[in-house]
């Protein structure tokens, strides 16, 4: 039988087989360490020359198909960690030394996120040791975007190694391979050697704080969410829309007729309303989130009948769009943005005079008003409603672009990622000037006018020595008429012209001694809605009619507190040890006799300040019979640039000296019991609380650190502010450089002086904190437990740097109350450490 053959195909097949054979021989000839090899629990391999171990950790709240690593910029055999369940997954690998980088996060099969090629996801694996590059944190916000970054949680990684690979943990040192050094792994090993009786990591956990006794005001009463969370006044000034939160899953829009005091519910939602916008005087539009992650825009319109009564009709705007702005000269129209089929955003005019007009509207590329722009995601209009400024996505950041008139080309104004010293607070009627607050090259934060055409500051609108402007007050036609700033703890409104100052005089006369903040004003500026509060008065909403010179209360943010009596706060002026003028605020509970004192330092510490507004935390402590001392130490906001700059480099030293000076002055001027004192703080305040018990060990009976920094160096490798080169440069500018100041940062970190903390400690922290990672509390807990001073405390799932959930706030402050009652009640000879007890949880 004769067979025909294709000689070309045969030759190609022989060539392919030859190449495959040659490639296989090459692979066999490669050393074993050319790939990453997982080390299973119980295995104790020996490292060959040029090999190292790497502990890989991935923290995800969704299941992942896998994550991939590159080596030396190339796809690397074995560099895939597969089958990851929600939570934190660890793996240990043997791998060749070299430079590695996270390459991809895979949701399903080959679909996922390609990580950008940057230093943020690179690390170097050194031979002969265990390298820990940090946890790869992954929190998707949608199928196309998410929060990703590297977070240093070395203690958690060491715990896993010690439990899963005890032989290798004992044999090799662990090195953190992030952007900054981490001395803690070596410090921890030495501490373990010094404390051979230390409890195993699995047995160390926060014990619940003592339950509080009877409380004059229940935490559930003081720490509820504010009822009124937003508002919008129509141009005529007679209809006020209020966004109201009735309970956890019940939001609604209430309409208050300021001329008749009639009130009605316009809409309800299980989620917060994101935006409210008046289209003329009689149509209110609002944005509501829906379950698929996209917002919908709805509205309600009033038509006045022959009988003079309003009839309300619902409006439903096209799905998939969002409101840009109203058109003041065309009351029945708005600017509405939609995403077209080609992916571009189109801003168009939408007629909302009726549902029929809305239904006739179609998004068309030729009708858009944002012509001449690409990748634009936000827009600003002039007083006539014309687009003049646009926010455009460029590379990994955003750029503000401007045009002189309709039809003119857009040009760049500024990059929005670098506005740390320039805060826009308003826009002129012609949109040719940006009003901003800045201290760049100035002694304090001044109000300035920035010309967008010349890209320069052209005028200083307000400047006062040692006073930081908080905000701009604008009148009709967007005219700048005044500013607000803090003076002696109170928010002050200053008006530039005597004609405008009649507003200030009317407000001061109607509401003396209050902090006043304008929330809305109508088109002619004669109808004003404002917030008013004081240290002992919860915020209230007022309506001021300038023609009638009359103000009346129209709403309360915390109506459940109505009729309760609260403790007023006083300003304490004094000087620091070096003569620096300082302010603090003292809140005394009613009653005779010396009061126990709670020192309550604020967070920040740079650019944050306490004030004489209503503070639920201060009032809760005062209701328990404790005096409260809050100090605006050096670095606090409101006192000018030199005062802020004086706080830099003063962490754990001069700042705490200022707090100490305040304590001395408060004890000299107020009836305080020097034998009953605790310190409570959050964030930097939590750090300060721990530092003060180390520096003044005999003064305090206890300390509470809420989301507090325990390790200053860790803050540079486990914080959202350190996830970019720019962010790290800013941290170094504000807080110092760990590479140059390592010894000083160790010396001022409570963690490395754990054995000097002799008082009982309470720690509280959210497990999803991106600013101050829970690793701070994990490390502090471990070391205090090792020293025999096991802290009590609470950890909160799904909470970040703050406590957004009401139930969590109630649990936190109930715990603080029980802890303070235990240690501030009655005489006590000397502070005593808390005895160790069985754990309740080990996050």
TrEMBL record:
Residues 614-825 form the Peptidase S9 prolyl oligopeptidase catalytic domain. InterPro entries: AB_hydrolase_fold, Peptidase_S9_cat. Transmembrane segments: none annotated. One of its GO terms (biological process) is proteolysis. Keywords: Hydrolase. Coiled coil: none annotated. This is S9 family peptidase. The lineage of its organism: Bacteria, Pseudomonadati, Pseudomonadota, Gammaproteobacteria, Lysobacterales.
